[in-house]
Amino acid sequence: MQEFALIILAYLIGSLPTAIWVSKIFFGVDIRNYGSGNAGATNTFRVLGVQWGTFVMAVDMLKGVLASFLYLLLPYYVDSQYEHVNFMIGLGLAAVIGHIFPIWANFKGGKGVATVFGMVLAIQPMVALFVALIFLLVLFLTRFVSLSSMLAGIAFPILILWIFNEPEHSYRIFACAIAFLIVLTHQKNINRLLQGNESKARILKYRDRRKERKSNQF
Questions:
Q1: Own/partner long-range contacts of 72-75 (Cβ < 8 Å, ≥24 apart)
Q2: Which of 22, 67, 90, 132 has the least C-beta neighbours within 10 A?
Q3: Angstrom distances, CA of residue 159 to CA of 9, 126, 156
Q4: How many other β-carbons are positioned within 10 Å of the β-carbon of residue 177?
Q5: Burial of 70 per CB tally in 10 Å (0-12, 13-18, 19+)
């Protein structure tokens, strides 16, 4: 019964619609009516810019961290060596589901990538570090947040299964499921990438301007 209550609490934490609240409070609009129509960090980068996109991403990550650490409220899981990992996965997944289907926003939320990263950060920080580096590298090279998210998501099970060789079967299954879920929720982005219509994050704009000026000289 206590576990069920904490899973519900984790879902409610994940349901906090960061992007929607930011867009309504500071800009007087609903971000779901702009850009891709998605209430997540990627669309916030696209519509509201780097500053607010970074803020939304950080808060959505924090939701995953907080939800995963709810296991600390039950002494049995604190003292266990393996059971707490399974419970953390359950709590984190509840937060991710809450982010994708938030009760506070008519069950229309984001894609859950930042919240997934938050729960991975809570469970296995070193894996999260590698995933973050992959995300940032792809973002630096392409400026596509969606592509960065997908490649980081695909790298996640590769790191778990082969690089770190995680022994927990539940964690291995979870990693594969998350990679599939991230790709599945980015179908529209994949289509836009293939068509050349995907928007780029407004970062490194000075570098891009220099490239444009150089190209105009020739």
A1: 73/2, 73/6, 74/2, 74/3, 74/6
A2: 132
A3: 30, 10, 5
A4: 12
A5: buried
pLDDT tens-digit readout, 181-199: 899 989 989 999 999 998 8
For residues 90 and 54, give the distance between their C-alpha atoms in angstroms, rounded to a whole number.
26
User: Tokens for 119?
Assistant: 């729960």
Rounded distance between C-alpha atoms, residue 108 and residue 145, angstroms: 20
> Which of 143, 134, 132 lies closest to 45, judged by CA?
143
Structure tokens at 191: 């289509």
Beta-carbon count within 10 A of 18 CB: 26
Confidence of residue 208 (pLDDT cuts 50, 70, 90): low
State how far the Cα of 167 lies from the Cα of 154, in Å rounded to an integer: 19
pTM given for the model = 0.86
Kindly report, residue by residue over 97-120, the tens digit of the pLDDT.
999 999 999 999 998 999 999 999
**How far, in Å, CA of 58 to CA of 38, rounded?**
17
Burial zone of 12 (CB within 10 Å; 0-12 exposed, 13-18 middle, 19+ buried): middle
